[in-house]
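Retro notes (design track)

What went well: tokenization of the new backbones is finally stable.
What didn't: we kept losing track of which sequence belonged to which structure.
Fix going forward: every design gets posted as structure first, then sequence, in one message. First example under the new rule, 125 residues:
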């Protein structure tokens, strides 16, 4: 059963300034995300933007927004083919369990100006 759906768009120009600000990256992103993103060179800002959109979309899918969530507790990794997976821990795991969610599906896309994320939260009946 679908427990929530969320979508978000982030302007890449907004994130461009964050790449050079380690304190912002540490505040809003999981350490594994920062490590993964920074390896992407010129594409790092696109990846960062998509990951931030995923955090926002997750909050929308929960129906609560980002209230009472640590954004570092929501993070994206990619398998060897590039497929993204959304991971939740701590405050995000608690929020997911509160709505009866057990699985999270994610889709990301980005172009020069925008990054978009869609999240679907599924729960057992």
């Amino acid at each position: 059963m679908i427990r929530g759906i969320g979508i978000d768009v982030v302007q890449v120009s907004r994130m461009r300034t964050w790449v050079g600000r380690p304190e912002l990256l540490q505040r809003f992103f999981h350490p594994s995300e920062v490590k993964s993103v920074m390896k992407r060179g010129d594409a790092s800002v696109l990846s960062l933007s998509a990951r931030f959109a995923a955090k926002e979309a997750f909050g929308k899918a929960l129906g609560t927004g980002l209230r009472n969530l640590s954004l570092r507790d929501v993070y994206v990794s990619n398998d060897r083919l590039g497929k993204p997976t959304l991971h939740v821990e701590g405050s995000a795991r608690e929020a997911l369990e509160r709505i009866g969610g057990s699985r999270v599906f994610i889709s990301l896309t980005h172009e020069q100006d925008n990054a978009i994320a869609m999240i679907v939260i599924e729960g057992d009946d």
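Added context from the reviewer: The mean pLDDT is 93.
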